Amino acid sequence: MTEYAVIDTIPDYERAVEALRSGTGPVGVDAERASGFRYSQRAYLIQMFRRDAGVFLFDPPAIGDFSQLQGAIGDVPWILHAASQDLACLREIGLNPPSLFDTELGARLLGFPRVGLGTIVEELLGVHLAKEHSAADWSTRPLPQSWLTYAALDVELLVDLMEAEQRLLEAAHKEEIAVQEFSFELTRAPKPAKAEPWRRLSGVHSIRGLRNLAVARELWLARDDLARDKDIAPGRLLPDAAIVAVARAMPASKRELSALRDFTGRASRTELDRWWEAVSRARETDDLPVLRPAGESIPPPRAWAERNPQANARLRAARAVLTVEAQRLELPVENLLAPDTLRRLAWSPPEPLDPATVAAAMRDAEARPWQVAATAEKVVTAFVEADQSAAEPVESAS
Predict the structure, then answer these.
(1) What is the number of alpha carbons within 13 Å of residue 196 lying toward its C-beta?
(2) What is the pLDDT of residues 118-129, one digit of tens each?
(3) Quick one: DSSP state of residue 5?
(4) What distance in Å separates the CA atoms of residue 234 and residue 9, rounded to the nearest whole number?
(5) Residue of 240, 276, 236, 281 lying closest to 258 (CA atoms)
(6) 71-110 residue pLDDT tens
(7) What is the rounded CA–CA span in Å between residue 49 and residue 56?
(8) Was domain 301-391 assigned CATH 3.30.70.260?
(9) In sequence order, which ranges of the chain are alpha helices (DSSP H)?
(10) 133 or 78: which carries more pLDDT confidence?
């Protein structure tokens, strides 16, 4: 079995940079974070493979500056699997692909029902990849050899996998679709931060009362500050369920808070003063949260039949025709057109309703040219037919 070593000194880093510079073809790239263990989403291991160079495992905290590596491979294509998960942490340390092939997205465009790396490698290359360390704490030092082997295999086969997918995309006449999708993935702006991220607490919808919501908010903010300071995943300090339990119970004293059975977590008692201060602030504040934040969001589709039956009819009709088109193209319907884009069009169609205005609205929502060409006219037809059906008088029984 090959023994892998982590590159964590500058001399070893410089030798690896020169080896990668001298390699041939595209570079397979992967990153390992410590999600679920650390607050930050920084990379704790960067893996790279290039033919005629080999596999290299870099320790980002130890190396720090990756400008030499970027200069060495910054003009060749990079291959990633599920690139959207890794691009941010790569860019954080100065690694930015000039062009991209995403093997997970390629598999989606090819219509594979399961697109995990292990599944696709086995399907297309006949190689079994064990994935037992995917949720490991990659901030651990030293990293066990079994983890390093797992990490190396994640990139060692990416070039072969890309070539296999390229052949299938060409045979399916989807090369241009893939080019547009990879380009969009590489250039799209990150989603803006939520104005009130505490509302994403699991179970927050079970909390009744504005004062109770204020408790949830203040506990979330206190937990976030502590997690950021210690670089520990918030849920490891105080689970969401514990915050929701406190917000629902509304303890009147620190003693009641401490005695609450569902107030669990590794920091629930060691940081009791911190949590009680948050509860106290919420009990006394005049700055109560609103029940539902204002915004441009539209209601969930399950509420449309009652709140906007005409929009509901448009949505159902368009979904049906897009499902047929996605089946014809052999790709997931969500890759044919983003579900949120379709919902917004159905809720408030542009005026006048025609292929040009719908295409423009799709482009404004960042739909790619191939998506607009494949769906705009079909969506207009579905909307028009739904509106006409709603306008037809219902004949009364004689």
Answers:
(1) 16
(2) 999 999 999 998
(3) -
(4) 32
(5) 276
(6) 999 999 999 999 999 999 999 999 999 999 999 999 999 9
(7) 6
(8) no
(9) 10-22, 60-63, 67-73, 87-92, 103-109, 117-125, 145-156, 158-171, 175-187, 210-230, 234-237, 240-249, 254-259, 272-284, 304-307, 309-329, 333-336, 339-347, 355-364, 369-391
(10) 78
Has domain 197-284 been given CATH number 1.10.150.80?
A: yes
Backbone angles phi, psi at 353, to 5 degrees: -85, 105
Taking CB atoms within 8 Å and a gap of at least 24, the contacts of 121-129 are 121/157, 121/161, 124/161, 124/164, 124/165, 124/168, 125/157, 125/160, 125/161, 125/164, 127/157, 129/153, 129/154, 129/157
CATH domain 6-187 topology: Nucleotidyltransferase; domain 5 (3.30.420)
Domains 197-284 and 301-391 share a fold: yes
Query: Is residue 192 a contact partner of residue 151, using CB atoms and an 8 Å limit?
Result: no
Asked whether residue 398 carries a pLDDT value surpassing 60, the answer given is no
Q: Which residues contact 288 (CB under 8 A, 6 or more apart)?
A: 210, 211, 213, 214
CB 201 within 8 A of CB 240: yes
Interhelix angle for 210-230 vs 272-284, to 10°? 150
Q: What angle, rounded to 10 degrees, do the helices at 117-125 and 158-171 form?
A: 70
Query: How far is the C-alpha of 305 from the C-alpha of 370, rounded, in Å?
Result: 31
For the chain, the structural domain boundaries read: 6-187, 197-284, 301-391
Determine the length of the chain: 398
Checking if the pLDDT of 189 tops 90, the result is no
Q: At what angle do helices 158-171 and 145-156 cross, to 10 degrees?
A: 30
**Lowest mean pLDDT: which of 141-155, 159-173, 186-200?**
186-200
pLDDT digits (tens, 9 = 90+) for 309-349: 999 999 999 999 999 999 999 999 999 999 999 999 999 99
227-230: long-range contacts at Cβ-Cβ below 8 A with a sequence spacing of 24 or more? 227/39, 228/39, 230/39
81 Cα distance to chain centroid: 13
pLDDT for the residue numbered 19: 98
Contact at 8 Å (CB) between 81 and 102?
yes
| Average pLDDT estimate for 28-49 | 97
Q: What's the CA gap between 216 and 242, in Å, rounded?
A: 10
| Three-state DSSP state, 329 | helix
